[in-house]
Every structure is written in C-alpha cells, then in structure tokens.
What does this fold into?
Amino acid sequence: MTDITELTLSETLNGLGSKEFSSVEVTSAYIKKMEEKRHLNAFITETPEKALEMAKASDTRRSKGHVGKLEGLPIAIKDMFCTKGIKTTAASRILSNFIPPFESTTTQKLWDAGAVCLGKTNTDEFAMGSSTITSYFGVTKNPHNENCVPGGSSGGSAAAVAAHMCAGATGTETGGSIRHPASFCQVSGFKPTYGRCSRYGVIAYASSLDEPGVLGRTIKDCAHMIEVMMGYDPKDSTSSRKEVPELHKMLDKNIKGMKIGIPREYTELVPSNWESALTFLKERGAVIVDIEMPHTEEAGMVYYVISQGEATTNLARYDGVRYGERAPGETLEEMYMNTRMLGFGQEVRNRIILGTFFTSAKGYYDYFVPAQKMRSLIKQDFDKAFEKVDVLFSPSVPIRPFTIEEAKHGAAKGRFNDTYLMPSCLAGLPAGCAHNGLQVIGRQWDEATVLKVLDVVEEIK
Amino acid sequence: MSYRIQGETTEWELVCGLEIHCQIISQSKVFSGASTKFGGEPNNQASFLDAGFPGQLPVLNEKCVEQCIKTGIGLNAKINKYSVFDRKNYFYGDLPTGYQITQLFHPIVSEGYIEVETEEGSRTIGIERLHLEQDAGKSIHDMHPSKTMLDFNRAGVGLMEIVSRPDIRSPEEAGEYLRKLRSIVRYLETCDGNMDEGSMRCDVNVSVRPIGEGGYRPKVEVKNVNSVKFVMHAIEIEAHRQVDLYESGNKVLQETRLFDPINQETRPMRSKENALDYRYFPDPDLPPLILTDDYIENIRQNLPELPEQKKARFMKDFGLSAYDAGILVSDKETALYFEDAVQGQDAKKVANWIMGDLFAALNKTCLSISQSPIKAKDLGALVGMITSGTISGKIAKEVFEIMLETGKSPSVIVEEKGLKQVTDSTAIEGIIEKVLQENTDKVKEIKAGKEKLKGWFVGQIMKVSQGKINPVLANQLLEKKLSEKE
It folds into this structure.
C-alpha cells in the first residue's frame, strides 16, 4: 500500500468511505509521520493515544453506519483553540500548564463531524507574529527549507500540513496568520467572514479581528473542513446566524464570465508567476478588472493600533491569580509584575505596552479613534470594489520565506510581509490563498465564490 | 430653612451627587449563565467566564436589559435605543479578566429625575445616567493571616449604576433621594435594595461653595457608604471638613476618600493625581445593544404601579390623606400589606392599625412588615370585627396582642377566649339585674338623685361581663332597669 499520508484530505475521505483503509490505519500513519518529522517542531503537544482512541471510536461509528462529514480524518489544532483535557498554551509560558476544562466551539464541531485530534500545533506566542519564532516552545522549521521560518502565526499548522504530519489543520487569523504561513509553506489556507466561525474557546488576541480558519493541502481540503467549523454559536455574540452552504460541493471549476478585480495597490511587488496567472484566468473565461484600493497603505498602522489595543486588555486576565504560571511577589502588584515579566515573551510585552498607550486616555483619541475611522474607510474600499467585481485577486505574500536568523533580526517587520493580507482582516472578509501563494478575497458571507475561484487558481503553476 | 454651613468668613452651601450601584434581580449573571444566588459556598456559582478563563466570551442576559429599562422608566428617564459596552481596565485580584464590562460612552438610560419630599416641599433631583455593568468578585482579607481569599460568586452579577446630577443640597435630601430610589427599584423588582447585604451600594460626591458662587469646586468622592444614615453622616462630615479647609485658607484636593463611621471621619483613599487611567474602549466581544420602540413600549405597558401612582390611588380610592398614603406607599411591602388588609374594610381604620399598633409592635421586635406574625388578612378581619360590633375596641387591643404572639386569626382567638361581645339583651339584663340586686343600697342612692353612680354601675357590669358587653347597650339597658325599679 502507498503511504496514506501522501493523500489529500479529500482522497483520504474517499479511501475511508470505500473501506480501503480504516481511521486507525490513517491515524497510525500520521502518528508515524509526526515522529519522523518531530525535529520540525510543528507541534507543541502531540496526542497520539487520544488520536488512536478517537480513530477507533470513528471506525466503530462507521461500521454502524454513522458517518460524519470528516469521519476518521486525523487533523492538527493550532494551540490557540481550547481543547478540553488537552494542554492549551497559546505558545506562551504563562499558559504552559493550562489544561482547559472546556472545548472551543469550532473544534467541538470538528470532533462531532468525526475528525481525530493528532495534537496542538506551534504558533507565535498568543498568535503575535508572522514567523512562529516567538513561541515559548521554540521555533518551527519550514519543511521546504529548514533554515527558514514557516511564516506565522499559524506556522506549526502550516508546517504540519506541508510535511504531511496531518490531513489538515486549524489556524487563526488576526492580521494574516493563516495565509502568511500557508504561503511560506506552500499549502492552502482559508478564513471565512468574521462571524462565521465562533470564537468561543479560541484564546483571544484581538477580538474584533480574530477569525478561526483552516490550512490544507488543497482548496477542496480547506472547503471540507471549514464548512464543518462554520455556523451560528449562541456562545459568541459576534457570531452570524447565516446558513452555511455545503462548500466542498460548490467547487465546479467554472469561472467563465466572472469579474476578477486586481487591486493596483496589491501589485507593487509581484512574484514571477504573476503575469502567467492573469493570462491563465483570462483563458478560463474570467474578466480581469483594474481596481483601486486607496487606503491600503494605512492598513498596517490601523492593524497595529487596533490589534494591540485590544490585545492589551484581552491579555490582562493572565495575572497568575486563578490559573497558569505564577511568580510570587511581596505585594499583589509585585506578583502581577513578576508573573507577567516571566510569563510573557518580549514580543507580547512590547505589544501590551504599545496597546496600553493606544488605549490610554490620550492615546485613545490620538490613535484608537482615528484607527477605527480609517478601518471604516478600508472597508469602504472593499465595498466599492465589490460593486464592480465578484472577487479580488492578488499575490498573498510576495516575498520569499526568510531564514530563522533573518526573522530574529526583524525580517517580519519588513514591507510586503503582510501588506496584502491585513486590509481583508480589518474588513472581516473571506479570503484564502492556494499553495502557489496567490490569494482571493471575496464579499462578506460569500465564502463559496472565494473557494470556487481559489480552486481554479490552485492550478496555476 | 435651607441647609447652610456657617463658616467664619461666609456661609457655605453643599453640592452633592450620588452614584448608586444596584445589583440587578435576575436568575443568572449579566454575561454568563451562572446563578446569581447569594450565600452558597465560595466559587460554586462562578462560570469559566466569571473566573476569566481564556477563550470565554460574554453573552448579554436579556433579563438584565429589561430590568434596566424598567428602572429607567421608573426614573422618568430616556431609554437609549443604541447603547454600547465598554471595557474599563484595571488590575485587581477580584477582577478576573482585568477589565470590567460597563457602559461609558453610550449608556442604556440617560436624563431622568426623582422628586423628593423635603421640609421645604418637593425638589427634583436630576439623574444623569443609568448604565449596565458587571460586578467584581470579593476579596476576603481576614480568613488567613497572610493570604487574600477570592470568591467569584459575585463576579459578573449585573449592576445598574445610577448617577445623579449634583443637585442635592442637604444631607436630608440625600437620604430622601436614596430612600426614594430604593423604593422605586423595590416596587419594580429590579433590585432588592438591601444595603446591608451590599446589593445596593452608594458612593457620594461632595463639594461645597459659598452661597451665591457659580460653578463647582473640586469634589471629593466618598466610597462605599452603605446605609442611609451613614450617607447622611458622611456628607455632613465631609462638607464640614471642606468648609474648615477653605476657611483656614487651604484647598480641597479632588480625591477619593473612605468614610469611617466609628471615628466619624473621612480618610483619603487615593488622590486623582495618581488616579488610574481606566483606558475605556468599546468591548469588541459585544455588538452595540439596539432596542426597538416596540420592545421598550411593551415593557412600559407591563410596568408595575410605582409609589407615586399608588399614593394617588390610595388617596382617591380609599379617601386616605396624603400623609397616610405617603407613609403606606413608602415601602412596597407595607403598601402590599395594606392592600391585602383593606379588602372590604374601613380603610382609615386599617391604615391607623398598621401605622399605629402594628408598626409599634414590629419595631419592638425588629421585624419587617413582610415578617409580621399577623397576616394582613387577619388584621383586616380584626378591624371588621370592630366595625360590626362583634368585639369592642378595647377587646380588639387584647386580641391584637394574642395575634402577635400566636399568629392565630382574630375569629379563632375571639371564639377560643369567648371574647365575643354580648349583644343578647336578655343575657345582659340578667347581669344588670344581678349587679343591681347586690347593690340595692346604691340603687337607692341613685333614686335619691345621685346620678353619678350610674357610671359606677356600668363599670361593675363591664367588670362582671369581662368587658364583653357593648357599653352603649349596657347603658341603655341599665336606664331601662332602673326605671322599672321605681
């Protein structure tokens, strides 16, 4: 038999369906691959026993005719999702001993659909970064070049998918944290509209931006997973009641007559396959439209002010009082300071300090309020664009993965690292990229069209 | 006379406003499903959200919104169809998330007022806002010599913070305002108003200014003054402290102080210079709260009767004086008691029994009217027995005492003790005959013109009958008997 881990998630589903192999066999193969590739440090916590137990249960269900949408599929979970009884750290020392007594809504939906949990993947600490180098649990290596970072913050998930250590993985985006590592690791990544996936049980970084999403080997794989994760959750007040379509069935490869906008501002730097990509889409019948997105340049600053402002208060709860690591002190204040100095890494502390400034009595009016206004203008750019076109198309990260050394010296702060990713996060729109690093952004709630176009884009070399 | 503080150089006026936190009556907390019940084991009513766990999200409890709207209507205030939740950021052991969810920029209720009765007549105290927020947990410092214990059962309970305008001009007005507010929330059942249990808590803002001076001088916030009496005391003490400072050429610092009821003083807590920056900003976990006109109107239509309305009705329907009606409605339980007791009875008499004998008896035993051993219906029945002549007013007092002790109904007591007024004239005549025969000498004296002795005979007759004879009837029959003797 061929190596099962070489199959895509969709192919594995078919194999399980035709009884070519069992979930225990698939899971065992992935566990073996996780061991082989452990040096990549894609996982913070591996859960092989739990995985086999879940796989057995899945096989039993299947034998009784109960087959969920992801029945028997072994997947990996970014360590930002709380998993009941499984250590969940946000890659931070402050949560290094935290075992949640509850399950996040989106992971619960995955388990309910029959998926099997292989473990928890590495990330930048509290998902703050785009290199996966700020993790308390060490750097994750890019499977395609181990001197390079996998991107981030969902770098562990991207590396695990790229190295075939799982059939698919969850990620979270706040400012591009799925598409960025997907691009660096040459896998597919997708996040739906803000409000589609419940944030309940997802450790918060910046609440108005955080969105759960997925990473997979193909767009179809992503569609399979995300349609399970989406849907209304009464536990999240920002969750949408919109019906969820069966996304994986809507990928019909037909983009004839579709209007695809190219934001001028997103083509300042393009990868070498860019021109041929446009030609390809035209050949498939799409109409290419030139689009202006005048507020793109501002997105980075707006993102930093809002995300850090929100992060400051979201991270205030990590005080060593009720759970997590505590460093003692003579007074309550000293205990707070010692705990937070010890528990948070430098990048997180930097962002907390900046965020405190942005939300201070003065900073609020000088920075936070203007940033909120600019965020509305950025959204308007998209609204205007979608009056003319069905989707937007551009490179995702137009630069090559940087080395771990470069990352340590601030490479991730460079221009173009996340310039093309942040505006769609601020606007809360569905967006994804294919393994070739090309991205598609769609209208609010229109995940189907984005995935459909991406499914075609995927064919571009 | 208005309230004035006489300084050495000038007369001073008080400027005062109250910030009152009312715990909302609701089954569950404002953003979590945990119960709000008071008293259980520590931390057994705290959800993961209340304990500030990662990944937990707030979901607004509609009941709390409804309670705020009700209260807002009761305060003659504007209900805002658009309100927003903000995070107020500070670190403290009993604040599990490091921020309190509150409403700074857009409160749910604004611009109301309360009318209070003072010696100088009715005054209007403006209400700036009522906003919805969550309570913190409790720090317990005295359970362990070196450790502080934390109880999160209270964390996340819904609070209405009601902020008055600086319209209060005397400690008495502050007391009246607080009593009136408490009465309103109790009528509406939006807060139980129990200050001693902390379900209603009061911070007092105090400043003074010379009579005639416009504008406001720096104010001092006196924290956690938790009874009407203490609020009045604290204001008095703080106002005098400020006058003394100004009169001696000093300044009043804008600061937060604590009231110490034992030493009768206020002490500094923290000054505004090193005051916390709470870094308010809209909570991204909660969308703005949008209310429709229909929703608000529906609540308005179903609002229970408020004290002012009840007072007017008592005066109209029962012919009570403004004074009596005012006393009866000042407390919801008393009003309910009255309404229960008055069914089919003489309202004025019922009111008198409640405000007289019952209040005195309850006062003596430190019971509230809802704990009264005498049920409202029974008190009504007692009044009914007097009206119908079944018992005399004098016997009624006796019956009342027994009711107080035993909780029995008056009819049972009257039956058991045989206290029923004798109205059968043959029986009464028998007693009179007996008394007359035993005192033939005195009868003779009457015949001789000593009319005064008739009163003595009535007394004797009452004594023999143990007060059960209607004295009017006894008089009539005595006259009749005496005339027969001629």
